[in-house]
Amino acid sequence: MAGLLQQGMGQPQGAPQPSPQAQSGQPQGQSQGGRDPRVDMDPQQGAQQREQLVNAMLESLYGPMLPQVRQILEEGGQQPEQAIGRIVAQLMLGVWQMLTEKGSTVPPGVMVQAAMVVSQAVGEMAVRLRILPEQGNGEAIEAGFMMAMAQFGQATAESMPPAQRQRYGELIRGLREAKGMSQQRGGQGQPQQPPQGAGQPGPQGGM
C-alpha cells in the first residue's frame, strides 16, 4: 500500500485552477476568486510555502532540537509513534507560533503537507537510532503524524481562527477516511468497495 503520507504530497485531484486575480499578481492576503488565502491553498504558491515550512522545521529538527529529539525517541522506543507525534507536533507549533508573531499564516493544507514531510524525516531518524525497522515502518510513521495533528490542534484550539480550525478538521477527517478505505481494500477476505458512482470494482489487494 502506498502510504498516506506519500499520497498526501501530491496535488489533490480537483484542485482549483489559478484565478484571474492570482494570475495578475494580486497581493497575497486578498480574496482570489472567492478563496481565502488563510484557509485555501493557492496552487501557485502552495509548493513554495510548503518548502519554506519544511526547511524551517528541519532546521530546528537537526539544529537546536536535536538533543531533545534524540532523547524523546530513545525514551519512547516502546511506543515510537507517540514519540514521533510529540516531536512533529512541537515542530509544527514552533513554526505556527513564529508565523503568528509575524502577523502571517499559511493555509492548513500547506501545514499538513509540510508535517507529512517532517514526519518522514523524524521516522528516518528513528530508523537510524534502531527504534524503527528499516522496512515496514510506514504504519508507525503515519500513526505518529496523526498524533501530531491531534496534539497541534489541541495546542492551538483557543488561538486559531475558526475557519482555519474547521479546515484542519476537514483535512484530518479526509485522511482518516482514506486510511479506512485503504485498510478495507487490503483486508484479507474483504471485498474491495468501489468508489460511489464508479463502474466495475477494481482488483482486490493493496494500493
TrEMBL record:
Domain of life: Bacteria
Basic and acidic residues biased stretches: 167-179
Composition-biased stretches (Low complexity): 1-34
Region of interest: Disordered: 1-46, 157-207
Name by which UniProt lists this protein: Uncharacterized protein
Lineage, broadest ranks: Bacteria, Pseudomonadati, Pseudomonadota, Gammaproteobacteria, Oceanospirillales
